[in-house]
Amino acid sequence: MPSPPFQMTLYLTFPVAMFWVANQAEWFEDYVIQRKRELWPPEKEDQRQELEEFKARIRKQREEKLLRAAQQRS
């Protein structure tokens, strides 16, 4: 079993070292931002327009369904 001073040093050093590594601006810019761009590339305008059209179609279908249901109840 490790000695208590060694354990205490390890317990204090590890979080401080992780905090220091995580707050390195160069590392953040080089790794994290690049990784984010790989995982979620910027949207293209035609993709956004297609998505908006799809949402409008779904909204219209839902409204028509609710209208038919309301008319059948009356």
TrEMBL record:
It holds the Pfam family Pet100. GO terms for cellular component: mitochondrial inner membrane. GO terms for biological process: mitochondrial respiratory chain complex IV assembly. One of its GO terms (molecular function) is unfolded protein binding. It is a single-pass membrane protein. It is found in: Membrane; Mitochondrion membrane. Keywords: Membrane, Mitochondrion, Signal, Transit peptide, Transmembrane, Transmembrane helix. InterPro entries: Pet100. Residues 1-24 form the signal peptide. Belongs to the PET100 family. This is Protein PET100 homolog, mitochondrial. It comes from Galemys pyrenaicus (Iberian desman). The lineage of its organism: Eukaryota, Metazoa, Chordata, Craniata, Vertebrata.
